[in-house]
Amino acid sequence: MSEECNHECSSCGSSCDSRTKPESMQVAPHMGTHVKHVIGIVSGKGGVGKSLVTSLLAVQMQRKGYKTAILDADITGPSIPKIFGMTEKATGDEHGIFPVNTKKGIEVMSINLLLEDTSSPVVWRGPVIAGAVKQFWTDIVWGDIDYMFVDMPPGTGDVPLTVFQSLPVDGIFVVTSPQELVSMIVEKALKMSEMMHIPVLGLIENMSYFECPDCHEQHEIFGASHVAETAEKYQIPHSMKLPIDPEFAAHCDAGDIESFNKNYLEETAAYLESVF
Ligand SMILES: Nc1ncnc2c1ncn2[C@@H]1O[C@H](COP(=O)(O)OP(=O)(O)OP(=O)(O)O)[C@@H](O)[C@H]1O
């Protein structure tokens, strides 16, 4: 940037630092909120296990002693309250709305903690949904949080864009399935984060293999894993493979993911701790 810069960009070079830096559209959180790190969990398409990974990461960091929260930004398909077995509704006072605690004390906000009838679909247009997610940041009294995990809706639509622009996202984890990794969908998600200047912290391949409970041989049910080569191609510093484990589904259905005691994401949690 030249010393004579008058911030009138039309008269200057396109490579100017000031001109190329995106203008911040971040919004301030509620005055009762102090979050140290915001981590997004994204996927190219639905049903690959994004909410499960969000929950496992939050549980793992909570076990390490950090104050952890989940902002469920998946307004039309909110699964976090169910995975944690939460039935209590959120309450508020004149200062704002309070998140609801899971059994082990992870703070959660989700549309399903606000709606009376959780079986009715949320039939809202994109900007209204994105506005609600923004309010989960501006109107919720989160308190002091070390790690906030944002469970994004799948794809690269309105909500991920709003979260990337409005919240101080430190980085994202991309959740994929072995089939999805060979497609261009995941590349779209990776390129979106690049465009938004948000670092991809890790790539998590879910349903990567099934380990036979008898002989312990690992079978790649959905095809060969491509997670390591994709991570290398995009210079993503961390990658991880999660197996198909029927206990996941059982714990999610029973709403007690916090008592699931296989620490598959221990390495990912240690990596996250080392980055921030
Ligand atoms: N590795 C796995 N092994 C067994 N079951 C799994 C595994 N991963 C996810 N599931 C099950 O698949 C279902 C979908 O998972 P989840 O809700 O996390 O997906 P999602 O990507 O968040 O979906 P959506 O995009 O619809 O929100 C859940 O019932 C979950 O228990």
TrEMBL record:
GO terms for molecular function: 4 iron, 4 sulfur cluster binding; ATP binding; ATP hydrolysis activity; ATP-dependent FeS chaperone activity; metal ion binding. It holds the Pfam family ParA. Gene3D superfamilies: P-loop containing nucleotide triphosphate hydrolases. It comes from the Bacteria. GO terms for biological process: iron-sulfur cluster assembly. Keywords: ATP-binding, Hydrolase, Iron, Iron-sulfur, Metal-binding, Nucleotide-binding. ATP binds at G44, K45, G46, G47, V48, G49, K50, S51. Signal peptide: none annotated. PANTHER family: IRON-SULFUR PROTEIN NUBPL. Homodimer. Binds and transfers iron-sulfur (Fe-S) clusters to target apoproteins. Can hydrolyze ATP. Belongs to the Mrp/NBP35 ATP-binding proteins family. This is Iron-sulfur cluster carrier protein. It comes from Megasphaera paucivorans. The lineage of its organism: Bacteria, Bacillati, Bacillota, Negativicutes, Veillonellales.
